[in-house]
Every structure is written in structure tokens, then in C-alpha cells.
Amino acid sequence: MAKMSLPDVLYALSDPLRLKIVRQLADEGEMSCGTFDVRIPKSSLSHHFKVLRDAGVIATRGEGVRRMNSLRRAELDAAFPGLLEAVLHAPLPRERRRLAG
Amino acid sequence: MAKMSLPDVLYALSDPLRLKIVRQLADEGEMSCGTFDVRIPKSSLSHHFKVLRDAGVIATRGEGVRRMNSLRRAELDAAFPGLLEAVLHAPLPRERRRLAG
DNA sequence: GTAATTGTTCGACTCTTTTCGAACAATGAC
DNA sequence: GTCATTGTTCGAAAAGAGTCGAACAATTAC
User: Rounded CA gap, A77 and A85, in Å?
Assistant: First the structure.
């Protein structure tokens, strides 16, 4: 992960599903691929992880039979100060959530 | 421009050329389409303006025979606090500049 | 009216991205 | 060794985005 490029990072974050993944990582810390709250085939999910990894947004390490993913907060903050925070605090497009009442 | 969506905005900003347009607008204020420092056919340029407009990143108003473009700073800041500033202050990927030698 | 200027739209083409099942690899349990 | 679990990679299909010339629209000047 020598160079992170702003367009690549923005692109990686421009997909609603990937954004959701990033936010869950921000909330939960390290998570294995299978524990995300998304319902898509694992090959599709794996693709999105690859996009995020290639952009430098997440890091993955093997732990036994599973891959633990984490946000590369420090690197992102260093390269693009304020960006991750802005993205994490922004209202999600249409989070499928029912308002009470 | 009812709702701006974060993925749409991030996507619009994820292209190096569009990023360059946005930065020139940030520096210069209002600019007509023909005054940007980019060398591509006008139909291609028009396409990128449309992407930025549709995402809510820029606004365009007609003034005589030309279209004046401006950054929708206030709206962007309101919808996604800190995002535009982070993007504008981030180092640009690799400005196509020839190294001597 | 004609002509010049500024941008958009159209249409076709190319390239990239996304999707998803199937096959594969790596680990752990047995 | 076999078997189950977790994820990646492969391959092909579908969808999407970018490029660019040509045609078109809108304005201004004449």
C-alpha cells in the first residue's frame, strides 16, 4: 500500500455497500468477512473487500480460517485529514431504517 | 436538487478530472465551462459537468451565451460537514507533470 | 435574416465495474 | 488422511461510465 490516491479512496467509498462495510468497521473494530450485516453472495462481498483493500481503506490479516478486516484510520487520516471523519459522520443515503411512529 | 447522496457526491469527486474542475472552482469562484484548464473535447467536458451537477456538487447558471459554474459550498457543507474541505485540502494524486530527464 | 460562440445532446463505441456460481486454497477439527 | 468452514479467484454475463465527433440549441452581433 505505497501510495493512496484520493480518487481511488473516494471511488471505493462511493458505493453504498462499501460505505456500509466501512461504517460497521468504524463501529465494531476488527470484523471477519462473514460477520458483516450484508446479504450478498460471498464472491460479490469478496470483490468489494478487494476494492476497499486496493484503495487502502481497509487492511486484512489472516487469523486461523478467517480474515480479520480493519479500517486503516491512521493512514487515511495522515493522507487525507478529515476525510474519513466527514464520511463517517455524514448521513447515510437511505439507511433502511424504520422510524418509530 | 432535493437530496444530495453521499455515494453520488463521492463518486462525482472520485474522478481526477472532475476533482480538478472542483478545485479550480474552489480557487477561482465562478467559471464558464470554456475557461477550465483541461484539454478534452467539449462533449466530454460537458459530460463531467453533468455528473457534478447531478450529484449536487456544482450549480450552473446561464449568463448570455455562456454557463457560469460554481461550487455549491454551502449545500455541501450542510449535507456533509467537513467533506468538501477535506477533499480540497488533500494532496492531488499525480498532476500530469513532466519530470525533467 | 446569416454567422460566430458557447454548451448540450445524441449515438456509437470502448473500457470498466458489478454480479454470481463454480472451482479452488487454506486452515482447523477429527 | 477426510470433512467443514472461511474467503479468494475464475469466467462469463450484464450493467455502467467515459470518450468523442456530429448535430443541435441558445445567445449575441451584424
Answer: 8
